UniProtKB/TrEMBL annotation, chain A:
Name of the featured protein: Acyl carrier protein
Domain of life according to the entry: Bacteria
Domain Carrier, residue spans: 2-79
UniProtKB keywords: Phosphopantetheine, Phosphoprotein
InterPro entries for the chain: ACP-like_sf, PKS_PP-bd, PP-bd_ACP
Pfam families, per database record: PP-binding (PF00550)
From TrEMBL, chain B:
Lineage of producing organism: Bacteria, Pseudomonadati, Pseudomonadota, Alphaproteobacteria, Rhodospirillales
Keywords, in A-Z order: Acyltransferase, Pyridoxal phosphate, Transferase
A Pfam family hit: Aminotran_1_2
An example molecular function term from Gene Ontology annotations: 8-amino-7-oxononanoate synthase activity
EC top class named in words: transferase
InterPro entries: Aminotrans_II_pyridoxalP_BS, Aminotransferase_I/II_large, AON_synthase_class-II, PyrdxlP-dep_Trfase, PyrdxlP-dep_Trfase_major, PyrdxlP-dep_Trfase_small
Domain Aminotransferase class I/classII large: 45-386
Enzyme Commission number, as recorded: 2.3.1.47
PANTHER family: CLASS II AMINOTRANSFERASE/8-AMINO-7-OXONONANOATE SYNTHASE (PTHR13693), LD36009P (PTHR13693:SF3)
Gene3D superfamilies in the record: Aspartate Aminotransferase, domain 1, Type I PLP-dependent aspartate aminotransferase-like (Major domain)
Family listed: Belongs to the class-II pyridoxal-phosphate-dependent aminotransferase family.
Cofactor(s) the record lists: pyridoxal 5'-phosphate
Protein name as it appears in the record: 8-amino-7-oxononanoate synthase
């Protein structure tokens, strides 16, 4: 199972592939405020994450996620739970 | 600082749209003359964006039935069915809806929005999973948020993607509910229901189809996409609305599940809001009767839809994938969409301006909805205005060579 920081690296790479891509994304980058993604763009990005990590991220888990690191932690949690 | 400061960005976006001309979010009809015509800004205007698919808002018998009901039973029910009781009309309409769909049970809600809110938030509970099409209507998203189930989106109209997401849940306990729409309201495309039903069977899920835009529109008997696709035995819940083809207001859910009626005392958006007034119920019963008795209405609608769709397609516009009463024209940008929409209103044609993020792939759309009540002349006049403005705004090419040939 990948570590949270490895997941964060993958997320940062994937953000780089978005049409709204910005440089200098770090684990502390705020997904909505700093990247200018609206809620729909976030949900669509989450779909690609689900496919990349082969895991389901229910919509209610997105509440409270602000930074790339939050997102990585949530993914790590979900993947841990799945294999536990 | 006020509690409304959080809306500053929205306010700014709204101002931009308004600055370009008329306010698309508070269009005003001076007078509505018929299902297909109104007076706006003192001008007779063709209504091409009202979801009035069968043109039943002025059905004479429906109007008489509503007038009679209001005289007999009063203007309102002043409360919900569980607190204030059921009127004969409510029970009658539920019976008729169940019969129409060949289902054992039907529940009437005060709007279609509330029907989705109620059914989704109640039938799927904690530990269950709802899988919704990514392009679902706001009422589906909101119904999911109101409940306790976990919600997963799948890619629009993609049964393989749905299957992949169900597979990921393989070892997770709980029920699965798949939610799709008959006709999607933004582009007029339909769900691949036969394939979705197959996925549903394979994974032992339940299936809900929202036929808001397809009731009375699709299927040999007007029972929607479920009928057209021949998957009536695979659907667990059909949700719909009285606010479009039936020309009134209200929503419903029909089902064959044996204990469906328990929802009447469990479903909060059903329990804690006033029931529909007698006049509405009476007109809906009448309009449903017309859907059953007059397949000709549906044929007229399909002919009209096809007329507008092909005229615009031939002129070079980018439209949705199939002929449908919803004809959506893709605009190259938000600015052009707003200018185009204003020019059409000035030319006496009203349709809907649909902007991101309410649209699929953040498209800017001019969305029209065709009605059986449109005359060919109205549709041609509307198409002519759309084509003329489309050329002047460079949305479609000028047909210069043609013009020169004529000269
Ligand atoms: C797909 C869909 N479901 C539900 C609704 C809600 O219907 P109503 O207008 O009855 O609340 C609509 C209409 O806006 C819709 O497009």
């Amino acid at each position: 199972m990948p570590q949270t920081n490895e997941i964060a690296d993958v997320i940062i790479d994937m953000i780089g592939a978005l049409p709204q891509a910005k440089r200098g994304v770090t684990p502390e980058t705020n997904i909505v405020r700093d990247l200018g993604l609206d809620s729909l763009a976030v949900m669509n990005f989450v779909m690609t994450l689900e496919d990349r990590f082969d895991v389901s991220i229910p919509m209610d888990r997105l509440v409270g996620i602000e930074t790339v690191a939050d997102l990585a932690a949530t993914l790590s949690n979900l993947m841990g739970a799945e294999r536990a | 600082m006020t509690i409304l400061d959080k809306f500053k960005p929205l306010q700014a976006a709204y101002e931009t749209v308004r600055a370009a001309g008329k306010d698309p979010f508070s269009v005003r009809f001076d007078e509505v003359l018929s299902p297909s015509e109104a007076v706006m800004n003192g001008r007779r205007t063709i209504l091409l964006g009202t979801n009035n698919y069968l043109g039943l808002t002025f059905d004479r018998a429906a109007i008489e039935a509503a007038a009679d009901a209001v005289r007999r039973a009063g203007t309102g029910t002043t409360g919900s069915r569980i607190a204030n009781g059921t009127y004969g009309g409510h029970a009658d309409l539920e019976r008729r809806l169940a019969d129409f769909y060949g289902c054992s049970s039907a529940m009437v809600f005060s709007t279609g929005y509330q029907a989705n809110l109620g059914i989704l938030s109640t039938v799927a509970g904690r530990g269950d999973h709802i899988l919704i099409d990514a392009d679902s209507h706001a009422s589906i998203y909101d119904g999911c948020r109101l409940g306790q189930a976990e919600v997963i989106r799948f890619r629009h109209n993609d049964p393989d993607d749905l299957a992949r997401r169900l597979r990921r849940l393989k070892d997770t306990p709980g029920n699965r509910l798949i939610v799709v729409e008959g006709i999607y309201s933004m582009l007029g495309d339909t769900a691949p229901l036969a394939e979705i039903a197959e996925v549903k069977r394979e994974w032992g899920a339940h299936l809900l189809v929202d036929e808001a835009h397809s009731l009375g529109v699709l299927g040999d008997h007007g029972r929607g996409l479920v009928e057209e696709a021949g998957i009536e035995d695979d659907v667990d819940f059909i949700v719909g609305t009285f606010s479009k083809s039936l020309g009134a207001v209200g929503g419903f859910c029909v089902s064959n599940l044996p204990d469906f009626d328990i929802l009447r005392i469990a479903c909060r958006p059903y329990m804690f809001t006033a029931s529909l007034p007698p006049a509405v119920i009476a007109s809906v019963i009448r309009s449903l009767g017309r859907v059953e008795e007059e397949p000709g209405l549906r044929r007229k609608l399909q002919d009209n839809a096809s007329r507008l769709y092909h005229t615009l397609k031939d002129a070079g516009f980018q439209l949705g994938p199939r002929t449908s009463p919803i004809v959506s024209i893709r605009m190259p940008s938000i600015t052009v969409a707003i200018t185009f929409w204003n020019a059409l209103l000035d030319a006496g044609v009203y349709l809907n301006l649909a902007l991101p993020p309410a649209t699929p792939d953040n498209a800017s759309l001019l969305r029209s909805s065709v009605s059986a009540a449109h005359s060919p002349a109205q549709l041609d006049a509307a198409a002519e205005a759309i084509i003329r403005i489309g050329r002047s705004l460079d949305v479609i090419p000028e047909t210069r060579c043609l013009e020169m040939a004529v000269r």
